[in-house]
Amino acid sequence: MDPSDVIRPTVSEHLFVLSSGSVPRNPAELVGSKQMRAILAALQEQYDYILIDSPPVMLASDAMLLSSMVDGWYW
User: Fold this and answer.
1) 3, 13, 32, 46, 66 from 7: Cα distances, Å
2) How confident is the model at residue 15 (pLDDT cuts 50, 70, 90)?
3) Which residues on adjacent β-strands are paired with residue 9?
4) Which of 22, 45, 48, 65 has its CA 20 to 30 A from that of 7?
5) Alpha-carbon distances, residue 9 vs 2, 6, 14, 17, 22 (angstroms)
6) Which H/E stretch holds residue 17?
7) Residue 73: its pLDDT value, please?
């Protein structure tokens, strides 16, 4: 899907949400993919800030994979 088809506005002005959808069989493979990097790069051109909520580092590899794709992180 194109991200613009699934990004939704919220009741707060200038705040939009893109939910994760259903859980894939191997989320780490999806999160660590070239396509994920491409989507984030495209979104960076459209939005001033992108906040990504992920599982804690100790519970899943998703946070570690995402940390290499973002400008900063906080736990």
Assistant:
1) 6, 14, 21, 12, 19
2) very high
3) 16
4) 65
5) 16, 10, 8, 6, 20
6) strand 16-17
7) 63
